[in-house]
From TrEMBL:
Taxonomic path: Eukaryota, Metazoa, Chordata, Craniata, Vertebrata
Record keyword RNA-binding present: yes
Gene Ontology CC: ribonucleoprotein complex
Keyword rRNA-binding: no
Protein name, UniProt field: ELAV-like protein
Organism: Charadrius vociferus
Length: 309
């Protein structure tokens, strides 16, 4: 009970700053800020291990929910040995459209303890897309589930399902997600979105630029540190925490930003989210574009590189 995981750290916070913040509570045995292996960018979380269990408990009571810059950090006990729990997230496709989340959990629960599960639904019709995610407590449980269920037909299903690790989808999956994104017959927004936007002169040109990608004209742009997603039609009182809550479940989010009016500090109706993994970003867009937030329907797309200007 001495090892803590700290989530939602500000992007620019260093390991030294993390250590000094938590060192103010008690003696630290080790402290590690987790960074992207390739870019060296902070992934927004870290581990702090105290010498004394009472200091770890005190750190949770004192620092959990602390606001740092635009983030509210979350401090909790870390689960044991990360190797045994790493990459225990499964991607399941070919599910019967009638299958509920509860039935999905029942099917997989024979293999181990399920941490989270989700079935993706079409935001327009509410119908299941036949795709889901299951996160097990341990990697070995996920491996057993793949062995037991991949290529099998669940009860009431006519087709076999595909079960594989979610963090390494094949090229084929990418293509499927992309075609789903850009050629979906029930797209809610017709192509001339950019023209519609031009009618409202109060939108800055950047907004119009970002919107053209919804028409499928522009394949997404990769920002140096990840994939940048453009979120449009947010309410004036929207803040960063809403974006964290919406995109967090899909995968690693490194940064969120709500664009605010300089004078009123109210949201100008749009924001940006950066995610490290392409497939997770594509999945978030497929699921959240057309999502109803309050009385507004969100438009979500990859931020385009402004090459067509």
């Amino acid at each position: 009970k001495t090892n803590l995981i700290v989530n939602y750290l500000p992007q620019n916070m260093t390991q030294e700053e993390l250590k000094s913040l938590f060192g103010s509570i008690g003696e630290i045995e080790s402290c590690k800020l987790v960074r992207d292996k390739i870019t060296g960018q902070s992934l927004g979380y870290g581990f702090v291990n105290y010498v004394e269990p009472k200091d770890a408990e005190k750190a949770i009571n004192t620092l959990n929910g602390l606001r740092l810059q635009t983030k509210t950090i979350k401090v909790s006990y870390a689960r044991p040995s990360s190797a045994s729990i790493r990459d225990a997230n499964l991607y399941v496709s070919g599910l019967p459209k009638t299958m509920t989340q509860k039935e999905l959990e029942q099917l997989f629960s024979q293999y181990g303890r399920i941490i989270t599960s989700r079935i993706l639904v079409d935001q327009v019709t509410g119908v299941s897309r036949g795709v889901g995610f299951i996160r097990f407590d341990k990697r070995i449980e996920a491996e057993e589930a793949i062995k037991g269920l991949n290529g099998q037909k669940p009860p009431s299903a006519t087709e076999p399902i595909t079960v594989k690790f979610a963090n390494n989808p094949s090229q084929k999956t990418n293509q499927a997600i992309l075609s789903q994104l850009y050629h979906s017959p029930n797209r809610r927004y017709p192509a001339p979105l950019a023209q519609q936007a031009q009618r409202f002169s109060r939108f800055p040109p950047m907004t119009i630029d970002g919107m053209t990608s919804l028409a499928g004209i522009n394949i997404p742009g990769h920002a140096g540190t990840g994939w940048c997603i453009f979120v449009y039609n947010l309410a004036p009182d929207a803040d960063e925490s809403i974006l964290w809550q919406m995109f967090g479940p899909f995968g690693a989010v490194t940064n969120v930003k709500v664009i605010r009016d300089f004078n009123t500090n109210k949201c100008k109706g749009f924001g940006f989210v950066t995610m490290t993994n392409y497939d997770e970003a594509a999945m978030a867009i497929a699921s959240l574009n057309g999502y109803r937030l309050g009385d507004r329907v969100l438009q979500v797309s990859f931020k385009t590189n402004k090459t067509h200007k």
